[in-house]
Design goal:
This protein has two helices and seven strands. By secondary structure, it is an alpha+beta fold. The longest helix is centred in the middle third of the chain and has 11 residues. The radius of gyration is 13 Å and the shape is globular. It holds the Pfam family DUF1905.
Length: about 100
């Protein structure tokens, strides 16, 4: 299992609907890539459990420009009033898939 703690500034990507992401710091990329070999279920997407202000949620990291983005669920953002530009302290774990 890989556990990471980091800070990130929330960004918005506008597609058909707005999506909000916390960019993973580049110094975590190597560890994530190593863990992904045991945890990814394909397409480069990596399932994770993240915690922000005591609220844990599951999601999947998305690869982007050689790094990763952590999507924030609407329920998590609304519960804490999180919006674009907010700096967040995030705990995140990647657990290998059961074989």
């Amino acid at each position: 299992m890989l556990e990471l703690n980091f800070e990130a500034e929330l960004v918005e990507w506008r597609g058909p609907a707005p999506f909000f992401f916390a960019p993973i710091p580049s110094d975590c990329t190597g560890d994530i890539r190593a863990a992904a070999k045991l945890a990814s279920y394909g397409w480069g997407v990596i399932p994770v459990t993240a915690t922000i202000d005591g609220v844990a949620f599951t999601t999947s990291l998305f690869p982007k420009d050689g790094n990763y983005l952590l999507p924030l669920k609407v329920a998590v953002r609304k519960r804490h009033g999180i919006t674009v530009g907010d700096r967040l302290s995030i705990g995140m774990s990647i657990v290998p898939l059961a074989v």
